[in-house]
Amino acid sequence: VGTLGLAATPSYAQIGVAAPIIVVFCRLLQGLAIGGEVGPSTALLVEAAPDGRRGMYASWQIASQGLAVVGGGLCGVVVSASMSEADLASWGWRLPFLISLLLIPIAIYIRKKLPETHEGGSDMSGSHIVRTVFTKYRRYVLLGTLVMLAGTVSTQVGNYMTTYAIQTLKLPPTLAQVATVAGGAATFLFALASGWLSDHVGRKTMMIAPRVALTVLIVPLFLWLVASPSPVVLSFVTMTITTRTGMSAAAALVAIPELLPVSVRSTGTSLIYSIGATLFGSSTQFIITWLIKEYGSIAPAWYTVVTSLVTLVAMAMLPETRHVDVKK
Questions:
Q1: Which residue from 12, 179, 285, 293 could staple onto 19, CB 3.0 to 4.6 Å apart?
Q2: Of 28-37, 42-51, 210-219, 302-311, which range is least confident?
Q3: For residue 259, which of 33, 109, 42, 19 has the smallest C-alpha distance?
Q4: How far is it, in rounded angstroms, from Cα 280 to Cα 287?
């Protein structure tokens, strides 16, 4: 519904201020929907994994998002290359959203065929589970949400690079879309690498090290990009952002469900993810658009640095979960 709403919302010229209000609502709805699915799907991956391979299994959560970005980026390349700028701005930008709706029957089929990993039922009601998460595990909810802060922000900054290239750097739309494809491919590969490494060196190391690297690198990278705007530099900067983000996020999405017992794992992970995605992810592109207008073209990098510092503190406060028994 959120995706269809983005594709079908009339323009500002047609319905005025209602248009951006509807778009923001649809973005929030997407964040809530994704958050609702992330908990069960991540819990399933963690619980289905053999001993010593939970990181590798659960890293497919982020890796598959990288593949989705590749698909979206390729769709954007084809649409922007085959249409005039006027048609693309008028109605062509809606096509990728409509095309993505074709995935719904496939998604439903996959979900029906997945094995169930939840053993036994629960005598707790849904409201009781939510209360338990926010009372007994409130520390993990707070820390997990703050871990999500930088991950969602830098993910959205990486996704925003195409818009940034077109509006700020004035690169052609087709060339700008190439960066999206490169970033998605990098996320896929490096998320899997991080999951594998987290099984050997621990979750916290793979959460913190890539985030520190991105915090240090992102401002110099944006300065370089603004000084030398080109498809090659754009792709390199985007891939640097997405690789570090994907590696850190993959380890985080293994650690968060491992912090919670079976009885509240799916709900707790969903709440943490959806709160982070809704508060931070859905608002990031609006915030950085405003920051660029007010403070210049390097503003997205500084926003990433500030949020990363907060997230690094939260990551440091989490316990190591590599050897946790997830059957309890």
A1: 12
A2: 28-37
A3: 42
A4: 10
189-202 as b/e, with b when 16 or more CB fall inside 10 Å?
Answer: bbbbbbbbbbbeeb
Chain mean pLDDT for the chain = 88
* Closest-CA residue to 163 (of 150, 149, 179): 179
pLDDT at 14 over 90: no
Lowest average pLDDT, out of 71-75, 204-208, 256-260, 307-311, goes to 71-75
pTM exceeds cut of 0.70: yes
- The rounded distance, in Å, linking the Cα atoms of 325 and 322 is 9
Q: What are the structure tokens assigned to 125, written together? A: 């009601």
Instruction: Please choose, from the candidates 242, 286, 274, the residue with its C-alpha nearest in 3D space to the C-alpha of residue 30.
Output: 274
d(CA 117, CA 181): 34
HSE-up of residue 252 (Cα within 13 Å, Cβ side): 35
Q: Please name the residue ranges forming H helices in the chain.
A: 2-8, 12-15, 18-48, 54-58, 60-82, 85-90, 95-100, 104-113, 126-136, 138-167, 173-201, 203-227, 231-259, 262-276, 282-295, 299-317
Sign, Cα dihedral of 146, 30, 95, 19: negative
List the single range of 16-20, 26-30, 199-203, 214-218 with lowest mean pLDDT: 26-30
d(CA 249, CA 19): 33
Amino acid at 138: R
- pLDDT over threshold 90, residue 168: no
Judged against a pLDDT cut of 70, whether residue 122 lies above it is answered with no
105, exposed or middle or buried, with CB in 10 Å at 0-12, 13-18, 19+?
Answer: exposed
Are residues 162 and 177 in contact, defined by beta-carbon separation less than 8 angstroms?
yes
Say how many residues make up the chain. Answer: 328
